[in-house]
Specification:
By secondary structure, the protein is α/β, with parallel strands linked by helices. The chain folds into two domains: 237 residues, Glycogen Phosphorylase B (Rossmann fold, 3-Layer(aba) Sandwich), CATH 3.40.50; 154 residues, 3-Layer(aba) Sandwich (Rossmann fold). Helix content is 43%, strand content 13%. It contains 15 helices and 13 strands. The strands form two sheets. Strands 3-2-1-4-5-6-7 form a seven-stranded parallel β-sheet, sandwiched between helices. The chain has a six-stranded parallel β-sheet with strand order 10-9-8-11-12-13, sandwiched between helices. β4, α5 and β5 form a beta-alpha-beta unit. α9 packs across α13. The chain starts with a strand and ends with a helix.
Amino acid sequence: MRVLLVAYGSRGDIEPMLGLAGQLRESGAEVRMCAPPDFAGLVEAAGVALTPIGRPVREMVKGAVTGTAPRPPEGLAERAAAVTATTYEAVTAAAAAGCDAVVATGLFPAAAGARSVAEKLGVPYVFVAYFPSYLPSPHHPPSALPGWPFPPEVSDNQALWDLDAGNQNVLFGTGLNAHRATVGLPPVDDFRDYVLTGRPWLAADPALGPWQEHPGLDVVQTGAWFRPGGLPLPAGLEAFLDAGPPPVYVGFGSMPVRDPQDVARAAVGAVRAQGRRVLLSGGWAELALTDDQDDCFRVGEADHHALFPRVAAVVHHGGAGTTATAARAGTPQVVIPQMADQPYWAGRVAALGIGAAHDGPEPTLASLSAALGTALDPRTRARAKTVAGLVHTDGAAVAARLLLDTV
């Protein structure tokens, strides 16, 4: 069996797919991935062949977070149509060697292009979300599309989702149908329903991100998809960890921040104020050490599954994968959400009592010190250890079996 995985987004979209890829390969399936070229090294290091989709996304993400990217001449609808067409081309090329199923995640216009290829080939297609609020439900509101705010007088969740469906048809459906006409496919009436299907998958842990059932959507919650962990940590990092008590990890993964220097200063100062050492991850935020004191260490790539059980707390942006990995390790968290699903995970961390949700994307010494005070409280650590025992570790295996059964 040959499976094509499509993930257009940040590293948080790619990593879980590699967890699924590993389980599929163990079952004897051949796997290829379509993803942005930013992650070629990551995908190929996992032994998965990559067909890149379009241009790197790093600058696009940076512009969305910091507001520093130049305004493109085309609007959102035109950019979405280009993503749909580019993804269609990449997935078609990747499927040339054979394809029995397509699994897609990330931006909806890219997933729409992927489903069009699956439709053209006559093979099963699955859309996967990594957090519940990405899927329509009367139990939570949708996120407004850029430049398309919802009317302030509308507060009913179902009414907001209805508005969202109409907005997506205007912004994304028109471009999708124009492209489908060029490849001999009929028009789509409801863009969002076409992307999601009536039975999307939810790759989130039930204890961390539970799905509330309702008649409108048949969601299959598999549990979070983890890549196999246990890779050796860099020698310098091992030496730092061994040289003193557990440090506080601070990192934002493939998420830029508005002012890296201010964030680094606030983080280092707040951690030191708690009497802790600092482990700073550079990442796309480009965080750097603020001085040469030996209580701080800057790390590049490191296996979070191996690292997080050895730190006192994890300060991060609130990506689905980082949140789940820290929760699985039983390590308290401080979530400083920047965009997308991150406010959702910040709220869940606070609600579960396994850490603190920072108010807003720009920490100060005072605000981060207060959040760390909550996270480093012994009661928070005890609660984090309890919740860790509830986190499922077999989500990718469950999804692989479902896909094999489907095909």
